[in-house]
Amino acid sequence: MPIYEYQCQACGQIFSHLWRSIAAAAGQDAPACPHCHSAETQRLLSRVTVLGGLGGLTPAEQQAENKQAERLASITPKEQIDSLRRGKKREDGG
């Protein structure tokens, strides 16, 4: 199910539209603007996001995410406050 971005030629609004299939997107007119309901919309070229594997993170990315989560989970609120205070003192020159 592809998601395409469109821009309304009347009001300039950019919006996304989910199609059931590529064939449905190719066989039908562009959707109306959800903001002003104008039928004068144009499909935009958008960046494509590519994820590793079958749409998930690569093993290296997953490992990095897990390490970051473990590190953040080990910080207690007091430790976090102390860390922010140290950073503030450095910014203030103290």
SSE blueprint and pairings:
Layout: E1 3-8, E2 14-18, H1 22-27, E3 41-43, H2 59-73, H3 77-92
Antiparallel strand pairs: 1-2, 1-3
Key words describing this protein structure:
single chain; 94 residues; alpha+beta; three-stranded antiparallel beta sheet; 3 helices; 15% strand; elongated
Commentary on this structure:
The chain has 94 residues and is α+β, with helices and mostly antiparallel strands. The protein has two domains: 3-43; 59-92, no CATH class. It has three helices and three strands; from the N terminus they run ββαβαα. A three-stranded antiparallel β-sheet has the order 2-1-3, with no helix packed on it. It is elongated. The termini are far apart. The mean pLDDT is 83.
Offer a quick outline of the entry.
By secondary structure, the chain is an alpha+beta fold. Helix content is about 40%, strand content about 15%.
Taking pLDDT < 50 over at least 5 consecutive residues as the criterion, the unreliable ranges are: none
DSSP, total strands: 3
Largest sheet: 3 strands, antiparallel
Determine the N-to-C terminus distance.
56 Å
Q: Report the mean per-residue pLDDT as an integer.
A: 83
Order of helices and strands: EEHEHH
Strand order of the largest sheet: 2-1-3
| Tally of contiguous helical segments | 3
**Roughly what percent helix?**
25-40%
Which overall shape is indicated by the principal axes computed on the Cα atoms? elongated
